Amino acid sequence: MHATLNPLAFAWLEITGLCNLTCDHCYADSSPQGTHGTMTLADWYRVIDELANMGTKDVQFIGGEPTMHPDLPELIRHAHRAGIEVEVFSNLTHVQEELWTTFTDCGVKLATSYYSDEATDHDQVTRARGSHKRTRANIERALDLGIPLRGGVVAVRQEQRARQAAKDLVDLGVPEVGGDRTRAFGRGSRGAAPAIDDLCGHCAQQKCAILPDGSVSPCVLGRFLTIGNVHERALADIWGSTRMAAVMAGIKAVHGAGAQRCTPPQFLPMCGPCGPCVPSVRTRPCDPKLAVDEPDVATIAATG
């Protein structure tokens, strides 16, 4: 598809595979053994400039844990100077004081994952004792500073109190709370090969992900569908390439034309929650075509 018919409005910038947590369901297989990849600060600056020239309005810095990348403040400020809105998706356990200043100075939005209202249950998902306490405290700090914040609850374990986690976020004052099931990617796949049918169907439609090694994919979950690499070609050339058209055709063949299933709101800032099912934790992605026929009661299913 030609770039003019499919403008690139949003990009995930996955700046690192390093993370201080080892969540069982991590789609990116991030861990303390991860690295920042091959993309240098200059490479990311160039990509951000290319995105601005392509008319991209929003980027989300993601990981791994993006706050563990030493250049995150500079990257945020560069995107801000380029006129691009910034969101940072963080587990909010590792926020240095400098970053809070950068967040407020540059009008950054935040998004985070939250697994339970009980510390023990949350920490079992993240495999890090004390992670619930740190995340919850930084949620409160972000709200106190007036930083826009979204929360996402992923149903990982049946016993994790995911419904209560969503309620806890609402009670704290988080204005947008979404939910999703574990997706069969990365560690969440438990060894299964990634499949297009476990994507939402909106991949590559005005959005893409750029990964730590420079590769471009239709979304952060669809990293097995490589479109190109910014080390080798300009992003605009990748976006309008025949490979891009082939990837989109493959997604369309599985999900149909004009896929209706929403991207889970914890992944995509431009997709706010829609009624009647928010805040909720569902067993599958929300489908607006079916929402009018479904009760507005959250459902949680075991994932294994």
From TrEMBL:
Q: Give the keywords, sorted.
A: 4Fe-4S, Iron, Iron-sulfur, Metal-binding, S-adenosyl-L-methionine
What is its cofactor?
[4Fe-4S] cluster
List, alphabetically, the InterPro entries matched: 4Fe4S-binding_SPASM_dom, Aldolase_TIM, PqqE-like, Radical_SAM_PqqE_MftC-like, rSAM, rSAM_sf
Gene3D superfamilies, alphabetized: Aldolase class I
All copies of domain Radical SAM core, residue ranges = 5-237
One Gene Ontology term of the molecular function aspect: catalytic activity
Protein name (record):
Radical SAM protein
Q: Which organism is it from?
A: Streptomyces daliensis
